[in-house]
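Bench notes, afternoon.
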Amino acid sequence: MASPDAPLPSPASTLDESGATALAKAALRARVRAARRALDPARRAAEAEAAAAHLWEWLGPRVAATRGRGATPVVATVLPMPTEPDTGPLRERLHAAGARILVPVIEPGRRLSWAAWHPGVGMARATAAPIDEPIGPRLRADALADATAVVLPGLAVGEDGMRLGQGGGYYDRFLADLPAAVPTVALLFAHEVLPATEVPAEPTDRPVDGVVTAAGLRWLGPAGPRGAAE
């Protein structure tokens, strides 16, 4: 415990700390993006396929159990940018298993809404990112309040669960409102899982429960996965 006579942090020192964290994040983003660009496309595809298989060992039974209760399982994932791990293998498994697949749509104010994806859905170019988004109704985040899982993108994740995103803060805002019972898993390449504390974090950053790569599915952080044992 700090001494009651210890001086309070000055606004300048707080600003300096925040600025240092932002610089550290920017440097790590640059390294990860460069490494991703250097990956052979065949390796990217192979790692994505292996990661989907590992995730399905856990996710598949949960999807089947929800269907067995007479409900439609809802799983959120992402339509990836070219250098990100491809979610196509996962989406194929989810569609075949009868899950409802929701993907993010970028909204003003650095917020996300959600749209249903299925093979053959109409697509349109996003206004704020180099990706296509499904054409159809936009759903609020509460559409995922009872989701079976949320599979997030990212650039790196520490073993403490802290996730490095692209820098827009979209997912941190989303995760802040997501019910604690919904498990969150980041989909990455195997070398992007880093030791604890190596992913710089700010108070507004939100950890994920797990990370899946070609090496397997790992649950992170001291408290374990939210809802993962169900």
